[in-house]
Structures are given as structure tokens and as C-alpha cells.
Amino acid sequence: RLSVLLIERRYDPHQGHWALPGGFVEHDEDLDAAARRELAEETGIDVEPNHLEQLRSYGTPGRDPRRRIVTVAYVAFVALPPEPTAGDDARQTRFFAIDDLAIDELGQNDGTPLAFDHAQIIADGVERARSKLEYTTLATAFVEEQFTIGELRRVYEAVWGMPLHEANFRRKVLGTPGFVEPTGETAPTDGRPSQLYRKGE
Asked: 193 with 183: CB under 8 angstroms?
């Protein structure tokens, strides 16, 4: 399931609400370093610099009751993250499945109470994940080194939130030059053996 890492806020504003990890940039650090530092301080998870990418900026007046705050949001795609541990101003931290949060494509949330405009930021992050599956080999990071087309399809279904037609998906994957390549081996199944593939060039 496609999931997002959230913290429960220890302090106001929005005390007790769930939020994306984050905080303020120090005077002597750049945005990328601040994003990595805040993630590590609040969740105990450290990601490689090249795994973080800017999502977009958010600056609607009134989005933070304290004062005018502009947020630069980042996204990192991680297949097997370590167990998060709450720190800094986080009461607790955990992964939430996106479909459990009940966020629609407009960033409206009917489920878990989220702080600030974080429902919109999460919705934008989901759209980024979906679009990256269209033009990169990102999905292959979420399967074993050798995988079947069916296993790869389940990654797409989890991110896109819908079932995909088996034959059409197979045709698309195998028809995209350099996406996957056959290993020459098969995986045992209940029916006929399935061809195994690896990430292509």
C-alpha cells in the first residue's frame, strides 16, 4: 500500500493532529539540508540527499496561524524504510496508508485530522508518485531484484489506487524499450511458471 510518514504534533498549533515532519530552516543551512535534518530529528529516519526532491512551495496567507509561513515541501520514495522513532516536537510517528487518510485529489480530508494544509501537500505528493511511475523505473525499486510482471503491476495498482488490466499492462511494460529485461529464469506458481525480469537500463 502507498503510505506516508506522519508525526503527531506535541505542541500547538494543531496539537494532537497528524502532520508531515518539518520545521524551520536554520540560518546557516540550505533547504535540502533542512529537509533531511527535520526528517531525522522528528522521525529518526535519515535519507540519502539524492533520495529527496522538492515537491512544490505553499504560501497561501493564513495557512499557519502563527504568522506568514512559506513551506517548501519535499518528497522521498523509500521501499523499505526503517521503523520511525518520534523525536523533537513529535509525540509519535508512524506510516499511514494513503487510502486510510481519505484524501481526495483536491486535498480534502475526511479521515484522520491533519494539521495546516498538509492534506493538500499529501495529495500533491501522491500525484507526484503517480506521475513518476509514468516516466521512470521507480516502480522497480519496490519489488525484489528479480520479479514477475504481476508483482510489478501490483506496485502500480497500489500507487494509482485501481486495478489494471493484466494483458494491457504486460504489453505496455514489455513494449517500453529498456524498462525491464528477462532474466531467463522463472518463478514457481500454482499454475504455469512466470517469467522473471529485472530492472532495465
From this structure: no
Say how far apart CA 197 and CA 200 lie, in whole Å: 9
Q: pLDDT, tens digit, for every residue of 135-187? A: 899 999 999 999 999 999 999 999 999 999 999 999 999 999 999 999 999 98
Three-class SS state of 77:
coil
Among positive and negative, which fits the CA dihedral 200, 170, 184, 196? Answer: positive
Using DSSP, state whether 164 is helix, strand or coil: coil
Q: Residue 159 burial by CB count (10 A; 0-12/13-18/19+): exposed, middle or buried?
A: buried
Query: For residues 22 and 68, what is the distance between their CA atoms, to the nearest angstrom?
Result: 16
For the entire predicted model, the pTM comes to: 0.90
In angstroms, the Cα distances linking 44 to 40, 148, 173 are 4, 33, 36
Question: What does 44-62 look like in DSSP terms, one character per residue?
Answer: S----GGGEEEEEEE--TT
